[in-house]
Description:
This protein is mostly helical. Helix content is 85%, strand content 0%. It has helices at 2-59, 69-78, 81-99, 107-129.
Amino acid sequence: MLLYFISFLLIVSFFVLNMFVGVVVENFHKCRQHQEAEEARRREEKRLRRLEKKRRKAQRRPYYADYSPARKYIHTLCTSHYLDLFITFIIGVNVITMSMEHYNQPKSLDEALKYCNYVFTIVFVFEAVL
């Protein structure tokens, strides 16, 4: 009887444990499927919102559409990548010329650095005016 009782308890507890684990795993799979469907729906809504935003942006006229030709040219110049590169280059050369100043420097170098400083000042003022 003892052998039957112990084997019965082990087998029944094993089946109950398996059924419990099966229910938990099944609920986990249902929740996961629901979550994946929700994420797919959200991604689709986000994609549609982005497309709608792009469509609205494409239909809008740019803010500079009504500018005069001269102002439009200045706007194009100021937003140009090449102007940014040019100003960056000028800043680098300005830093180099400022670092060339030293004690007991020759008068010719002093004059050259002074004229370079004037040129850089004119370029930076012109950029600010644009």
